[in-house]
Amino acid sequence: MRVLIADDSATSRLLLRAALGALGHECVEASDGAEALEIFTREGADVIVSDWMMPGLTGEELCRRIRISELGYTYFILLTSLEDKSHALAGMEAGADDYLSKPLNRNDLEVRLGAAARVTALHRRLADQQTQLEHLNATLFVDARTDGLTGAANRMRFDEDLAALEDRAARYGHRYSIAFFDVDRFKLYNDTCGHAAGDDVLRSVTAALSGQCRTSDALYRYGGEELVVILTEQTTESAAIAVERMRAEVQRLAISHPGLGGDQVVTVSAGVAGSDPAAPVAAGAVVERADLALYRAKEAGRNRVVLDEVESDQRPKVLLVEPSLTQALASRAGLESAGFVVRVVTDPRSALAVARQEHPDAVVAGLDMPGLDGAALCQTVRADPHLSHTPVVLRTSRVTSPELTALLDAAAPDALVDKSVSPKQLASRLTELISSGRVTA
How far lies 263's CA from each of 254, 256, 257, 259, in Å? Predict the structure, then answer.
């Protein structure tokens, strides 16, 4: 064992060193209590043999300081004079394990060190077991909060993290967004390809989403084919851009979906909602709004990202049809700052269904859009008896192109604006149209 000798007498240290060396122990010497404490703090020791009376730091105080430290266990033996046993009692109360009377008896020293060897070995085993137990508990903690199939955090971890996030948001005004993802037509995939293949899809989708997350984001398997991401310090708009990247990454996997036929691939739909420090709500409400936005994404045709829409009876509602999510969010921000409630639709083919459901006060769409151009959309709106009086504004970058004349005559939009006009100018035109009804441009 490694034995630290603390004694201000060089002669006593020499005698102790000789006796300990003869018994096969390694010795380290300190000339007073302060030096002994420094050595023990720096290097440790299995056993400390300390004189009671030393200048500065006594043996009793040395023992007391070592016991209250977090430096681990050491067996402490106090040396006292043969005549004064009261020191031994005080030392034991300070935390000493044993004592020896001066002058030293080698047989007594050997017996004490034998006891020290047994006790220190027991403490080591207990420390090792404690370390193993802590490691096991940490592993169990993580396993209980990890989804066994995908490796993502599970619903339990989501609930815990969301509660902590809600507390931080309330205390410090932090904002966050929540995105719900659902694998499109997953039951059909399982029925067609089998559950083992379905499990592979869930693992692949989870990995794709995780690869697009920032280090500060967290991905969870919420249940079944539904996944959720918490995006910290993100507005709904900025989170939607990140979520769109995630959606596109899943589509890029190009996992064939035989149940849909043709060259159809596995896709995901997503709904995004966020907190607002200026108008705080419970985290559960944000979750519900994100889940509702996911439902809207499914209803609008799947494989898309839909933002939470906070409705207002007082503000005019605009349906903004824009395939580019980045451009849509920029336009939305400008229109909302002008007092509009903006509903974004990125798939022109689903715009009519959304318009019929939500009855906007105006529709803004691009003239040149994939799937359904703005002119065709305008004609469809005009033909619908419930929407025929809804103002339609078409945006284009070719307002001076001569071939537009016939196209616009057939579509009859209420206004044609250049895509380069500012959101403020667009808002002004919309306000005019909504206030006065249909006015042909």
Answer: 9, 7, 8, 10
294: Cβ–Cβ under 8 A, 6 or more apart, which residues?
Answer: 180, 181, 182, 269, 270, 271, 306
Q: Residue 406 — φ and ψ, nearest 5°?
A: -65, -40
How far is the CA of 401 from the CAs of 166, 371, 392, 412, in angstroms? 53, 22, 20, 16
| pTM of the entire predicted model | 0.58
Structure tokens at 47: 């056993």
Superfamily name and number for 145-309: Reverse transcriptase/Diguanylate cyclase domain (3.30.70.270)
Give the active site residues. Answer: 225
What are the tokens at 236? 């709904």
Q: Quick one: tokens of 309?
A: 């829409």
For residue 180, give the amino acid letter: F
pLDDT tens digits, the chain, 441 residues: what are they? 999 999 999 999 999 999 999 999 999 999 999 999 999 999 999 999 999 889 989 999 999 999 998 888 899 999 987 566 677 778 888 899 998 888 888 899 999 999 999 999 998 899 899 889 999 998 898 899 999 999 999 999 999 999 999 998 888 888 999 999 999 999 999 999 999 999 999 999 999 999 999 999 999 999 999 999 999 998 888 899 999 999 999 999 999 999 998 899 999 999 999 998 877 788 998 999 999 999 999 998 999 999 987 544 467 899 999 988 888 888 888 898 888 888 888 888 888 888 888 889 999 998 888 877 888 889 889 888 888 889 999 988 876 666 666 666 666 788 888 888 888 889 988 988 888 764 443
CATH of domain 311-441: 3.40.50.2300
Would you call 164 exposed, middle or buried from its count of C-beta atoms within 10 A (0-12, 13-18, 19+)? exposed
